Amino acid sequence: MAPIVHVVFFQFKPELTAIERTRASHPSFRPGSEADQVPPLQLCDQMLRLKDSCLHPQSEKPYIQSSMGGLDKSIEGAHGGMTHAFVVQFASQEDRDYYVQEDPAHRTFVDSILPNLVKARIIDFTPGVFR
Fold first, then answer.
1. Residues 20, 113: contact at Cβ < 8 Å?
2. Which SS3 state, helix, strand or coil, does residue 50 take?
3. Could you give all domains of the chain from N- to C-terminal order, each with its CATH number?
4. Exposed end of the chain (fewer CB within 10 Å): N or C?
5. Global pTM?
6. CB neighbourhood size of 85 (10 A)
7. 28-81, pLDDT tens digit by residue?
């Protein structure tokens, strides 16, 4: 089985304040709590937590191999408005397909984040495969 790399880019709505972005990323957020001081790299902590909350339907164990993300730091100016990027690796196309099409933790995340975005872009690839 060839691994699949899932790359996700988000552009948050510009009218969202830092607190609203934190609330979008942390459903249990309460204004005035420590979450108000969440550093920018933790704005999308919910996306990163999918690595542990997405469970394989048969084994009931986490199946995402790796997950990382952060705020755009490019100096090239070619981000197209995207502000945050994430890279998620799966062991197989089947695992990626389950994640995108059926995983309840992922579906919940998508439903909660979409209203807060201008747009999202997603690209999946198999490392080293160009045909």
1. no
2. helix
3. 4-14+44-125 (3.30.70.100)
4. C
5. 0.80
6. 19
7. 555 544 443 333 334 578 899 999 999 999 999 999 999 999 888 999 989 999
